[in-house]
Amino acid sequence: MTGRSQTDWIRNQVQPMNIAAVIQEGDLTDAVRDATRPAFALYGADCGMARSPAARYHAGARVAAGGEGMDPKPLQIGSLRLATNLLLAPIAGYIDLAFRLVVRGIGGVGLASTALICPRGLLRQTRKTMDLAATCEEDSPVAMQLYSGEIDPLVEAARWAEDHGVHVIDINMGCPVNKITKRDGGSKLLCDPDRTLRMIERVIAELRHTPLTAKLRLGWDSSSIVAPELARRLEEAGVAAITIHGRTAEQMFTGQVDIEGIAAVVSACRHVPVIGNGDVHSPADAVRMMEATGCAGVMVGRGALSQPWLLRDTWSILTTGVAPAPPTIEQKCGWMRQHFLNMVKFRGEVPATREFRKIASWYARQMNPCRVMRDRMRLVSSVAEFEAILDQFLAWRLERDAQMDGGRRLPKSEAELTPVA
Fold this sequence. Notes:
alpha/beta, 3 domains, two-stranded antiparallel sheet, 18 helices, globular
């Protein structure tokens, strides 16, 4: 943060809450905490917003789209009309407010979601839960994804979310992770469709105007594929959209997405949009999923972690048949820097540097050669160190790329760069 201290920035930027946000008290001074009461505040984020893999990424998308746009329709979820039919998936520990702002600034996002939120934590307004729920005006429209096996807390949390301004409330019926399913949430809801329907009916009856959606997997395992019938019943109950990940809970993230399984869910629903999810790592993947299943939109998750421009490129392919020029190394470094500084702004320097160590490896997948930079980022401990590592890497890459283009002798290797103090 330049020009102003964190305290001054918070004092000048935070506003009364519209949608849940949190400032971790342990990372701020008493003066800042006093300036930001009550506990929730709206973050005023600056969201400044050959056949290589890159060639296949772009050429494959053009082939899949027939070289022309598909004329896709932006999604309508209840009364909410999205700008595109592409959604950014919730992934705990990775896709938070800091990252959502980066992706939104690049473009292509119709709707993004908070990470998976426990209703009891939301109702108690625990620090960790409110950090997951953090959002701001630039992070719009936004969904809040809830999970629970308990009906009453889920109903109360949905009403809380509506009262605090979220645009869509999503019930997670697909998370296969043990810490979620052992609480009878996530994909465990697929094991008792009748009870799940009663839960959904209670939530819908409580909401006044906010659309309710659901994210499913095909079933608990291959012997209990319930998604098509459950989706049909959810639509009849009043759910406004359904996202289907084409794997069972037992599969976790192994194997390939079952395109036919997604298509069966699309066929089971008569009116509400069905959004396909899973194994979307390029615009071509998104195009193929829509063409093969008939789904109205696509949700992108892990593919966006290393390619935050993926939704922008996919929307361009869908509407024009042509992808934008591949991002430059300067752009990639810029988005990486923006993501990190967003985290520092919202969470403080120490938590941000600690968390970004794992995130840097995702960026590095699209920045090769960058082994030394990647390894140094895994140990980063301050904003100054982050800036020095990234600046040194970018200067080296620009010199290397320029000399390669000119056929001149390459500069010293990345491994020979002077270690950052």
